[in-house]
């Protein structure tokens, strides 16, 4: 048996996603993670699912409807952005968990990852988690450091790497106000 980044993420989410959570699938792709998250947040939770491609957004919406999960998810056609998050959440609502999955992206540069991570970070509540999935890279430490440079406040971090990619985990620590 070999380690897999996808298996790690699945196991991690099974233990972390709880009923009633507000979760963002910031790069939903085919919506597979969105469906999983919707089934775990329960009827009192909510998932925001952002899709770069309108066709993928429509497929995800149809799949959620067929599974009876459509009331737990808002499917957004467009990339994760401050405007998109504010439109759905308002200015005061904070999120428990945000996932940014770049493992299937054909054209993603470090600037995009940094910008979307920074946007996501500002919407996380204290003790909220940001999960960034990236393709296999020799520059993982540099990427992690670049992402962290945009974060305000204190945080904890962990990394899991396998042949199929890496998972960067960031947890926002409580403010000491």
From TrEMBL:
It comes from the Bacteria. InterPro entries: SAM-dependent_MTases_sf (IPR029063). This is Methyltransferase domain-containing protein. It comes from Fructobacillus durionis.
């Amino acid at each position: 048996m070999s380690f897999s980044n996808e298996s790690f993420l699945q196991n991690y989410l099974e233990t972390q996603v709880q009923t009633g959570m507000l979760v963002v699938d910031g790069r939903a792709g085919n919506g597979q993670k969105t469906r999983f998250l919707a089934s775990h947040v329960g009827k009192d939770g909510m998932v925001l699912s952002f899709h770069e491609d309108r066709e993928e957004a429509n497929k995800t919406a149809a799949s959620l409807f067929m599974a009876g999960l459509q009331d737990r998810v808002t499917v957004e056609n467009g990339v994760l952005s401050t405007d998109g998050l504010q439109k759905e959440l308002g200015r005061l609502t904070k999120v428990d968990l945000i996932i940014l999955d770049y493992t299937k992206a054909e054209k993603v540069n470090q600037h995009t990852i940094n910008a979307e991570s920074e946007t996501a970070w500002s919407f996380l509540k204290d003790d909220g988690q940001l999960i960034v999935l990236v393709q296999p890279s020799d520059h993982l430490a540099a990427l992690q450091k670049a992402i962290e440079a945009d974060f305000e406040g204190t945080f904890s971090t962990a990394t899991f790497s396998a042949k199929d990619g890496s998972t960067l985990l960031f947890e926002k620590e409580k403010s000491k106000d």
